Amino acid sequence: MPTLESTQADLNQEPEGLPDFSSEAYKDAYSRINAIVIEGEQEAHDNYIAIGTLLPDQAEELARLARMELKHMKGFTACGANLGVSADMDFAREFFSPLRNNFQAALAEGKVVTCLLIQALLIEAFAIAAYHIYIPVADPFARKITEGVVKDEYTHLNYGQEWLKANFEASRAELEEANRVNLPHVRRMLERVAADAAELRMEKEDLIEDFLIAYQEALTEIGFSSRDIARMAAAALIG
Questions:
Q1: Rounded CA gap, 64 and 70, in Å?
Q2: What is the average pLDDT across 128-148?
Q3: Is the separation of the CB atoms in 133 and 206 below 8 Å?
Q4: How would you label 64-77 residue by residue, b for 16+ Cβ within 10 Å and e otherwise?
Q5: How far apart are CA 86 and CA 173, in angstroms?
Q6: What is the CA radius of gyration of the chain?
């Protein structure tokens, strides 16, 4: 296996089973996948700063989380540059628009629970799943960056999880409604990116499974029962 300390030259010495990082098909798919992670980190930064306006006593901690997201964004930008790929940011901004629009609407209404579910649970679980599946098939430079990022994402998921756990009874109804509205968007996002992800050797079924594991574990920690979670997960199938 290649070491993490790699150079551009390592791209020509990948072991059997990894993608051809220099192929046009790979670079085309990567232009959209890379843009999604860059845009996702930028939006996460903006979202945590915004949540800080609803939770002023938590603003300093949320600003710290936001700074971590900007660091991630810079790292993923470097991953694209390392492969000579220009990220398709127009695609990525449109890709996130359903969740972004719902987050902004909730923010305007002061719905901190909905904002936390969208950013700190759904989007972070989406990111954790994608990064877990990507790391084994990434080029060595991107692998090193992504391994560092995924550790931070658990910190972000845990922040939302712990706040919602501490406020579970007051938040429960809004959490269930926010899940019903937003979980179907994540399902559609995963389906939309499936072909490009497959070009990177990331299978849709693995992405969905990892996402649901991370998301459902967070819901369990917050206080939902297994029956509650099964009912909430079904929302993704009918939305």
A1: 10
A2: 95
A3: yes
A4: ebbebbeebbebbb
A5: 43
A6: 18
